[in-house]
Design brief:
With 157 residues, the protein is α+β, with helices and mostly antiparallel strands. It has two domains: 65 residues, no CATH class; 83 residues, no CATH class. It contains five helices and eight strands. Strands 5-6-7-8 form a four-stranded antiparallel beta sheet. It has a two-stranded antiparallel ribbon with strand order 1-4. Strands 2-3 form a two-stranded antiparallel ribbon. Strand 2 and strand 3 form a beta hairpin. Helix 4 crosses helix 5. The chain is globular.
């Protein structure tokens, strides 16, 4: 190998350690998540990251902060969102059998018109569903009402 190519190779290797790579992002995200875990516990919230965009110079991501408190104001907000989508009750937290086993409804993205309901599998993978498919998978409005009223009677908010 000519000396010029060898020096160029060493230069690239030294510069590569300063570049943003998958492993560097994972290390940084792990450190951020460790710090955020303390904040989540103190402030009674859950914090999650969305997808990451990166190149060799920088990376960007966004964070979502949700309250974990169960109170009337939070429930009324979810109920109004669900009613705007066509559900008769708050469906957050309801479970159903999907293609990947038991799924739990974790979120509603109101800006996503076609697939607004987000459900999570046991392995942590999230999937998007349409309102009609959720109604079909849960069992329709009558079953949704029955389950919601039963949970209220039993105190399982």
């Amino acid at each position: 190998m000519p000396i010029f190519l060898y020096r160029h190779f060493l230069y690239i290797c030294r510069k590569k350690k300063d570049m943003i790579t998958d492993s560097k992002i994972n290390t940084i995200q792990a450190k951020i998540k460790a710090t955020i875990a303390k904040i989540e516990k103190e402030e009674n919230v859950s914090i999650s990251f969305s997808s990451i965009k990166y190149n060799s110079a920088y990376y960007s991501t966004s964070m979502k902060v949700c309250t974990t408190e169960k109170n009337e104001k939070v429930n009324s907000i979810y109920e109004s969102i669900c009613s705007r989508l066509g559900f008769t009750q708050n469906i957050i937290g309801m479970t159903f059998q999907g293609n990947n086993g038991e799924m739990i409804i974790t979120d509603i993205k109101t800006k996503n018109r076609k697939y607004p309901v987000i459900a999570q599998a046991k392995n942590g993978t999230s999937y998007k569903y349409s309102v009609d498919s959720i109604k079909r998978l849960i069992g329709g409005d009558k079953l949704i009402n029955r389950n919601a009223n039963l949970n209220k009677l039993l105190g399982n908010d």
